[in-house]
């Protein structure tokens, strides 16, 4: 287990959250619109999106550190594809945090609910970007042999 890079441990959290968050946010928005839950419940969505963003940033930074381990094993094109898709995923998840946070700051409830719908749309884009980054990471591991790089570099 000590040969598994930190990036491999942390990268799964933001990708998994990106798959769940649009559903959670849609449920919270529905409950808010039907007055089943108060508007302040949206803070759960903001908090989860912030965790996703933080996890994506940590995964991105740890990926840069692990890049040195696998650079001799994988093609530069495959590595760059994963890196670029992960960076886009991280930064767009940050945009989703800002849009979600703005929902809480709005005074007009109808406008806030509309913006919450826009936030869910951005979260859905984050889901697609997370899938793309994860798929590119899987390519590195399963097609290009990145999983063997850390152990091989110790020899």
Any descriptors?
82% helix; 155 residues; mainly alpha
Helix content: over 70%
**Can you count the beta strands?**
0
Overall shape: elongated
Number of domain modules: 1
- Low-confidence sequence ranges: none
- Secondary structure class reads mainly alpha
Average pLDDT for all residues: 89
The Rg value, from CA coordinates, equals 18 Å
Order of helices and strands: HHHHHH
CA-CA gap between termini: 17 Å
What is the strand content?
under 5%
The major β-sheet equals: none
Helical stretch tally: 6
Could you characterize what this model shows?
This protein has 155 residues and is mainly alpha-helical. It has one domain (6-154). The protein has six helices and no strands. It has helices at residues 6-10, 12-33, 42-70, 76-105, 109-143, 149-154. Helix 2 runs antiparallel to helix 3 (42-70), helix 3 packs antiparallel against helix 4 and helix 4 (76-105) runs antiparallel to helix 5. The chain is elongated and about 55 Å long. The mean pLDDT is 89.
SSE arrangement:
Elements: H1 6-10, H2 12-33, H3 42-70, H4 76-105, H5 109-143, H6 149-154
Helix pairs in contact: 2-3, 2-5, 3-4, 4-5
Quick take:
This protein has 6 helices and no strands. It has one domain (6-154). It has 155 residues and is mainly α.
């Amino acid at each position: 287990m000590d040969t598994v890079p930190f990036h491999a441990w942390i990268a799964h959290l933001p990708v998994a959250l990106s798959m769940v968050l649009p559903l959670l946010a849609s449920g919270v928005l529905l409950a808010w619109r039907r007055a089943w839950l108060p508007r302040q419940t949206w803070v759960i969505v903001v908090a989860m999106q912030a965790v996703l963003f933080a996890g994506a940033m940590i995964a991105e930074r740890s990926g840069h550190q692990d890049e040195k381990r696998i650079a001799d094993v994988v093609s530069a094109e495959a590595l760059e594809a994963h890196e670029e898709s992960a960076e886009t995923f991280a930064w767009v998840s940050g945009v989703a945090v800002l849009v979600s946070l703005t929902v809480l700051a709005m005074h007009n409830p109808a406008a806030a609910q509309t913006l919450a719908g826009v936030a869910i749309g951005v979260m859905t884009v984050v889901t697609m970007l997370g899938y793309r980054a994860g798929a590119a990471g899987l390519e590195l591991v399963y097609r290009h042999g990145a999983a063997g790089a850390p152990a091989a570099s110790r020899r």
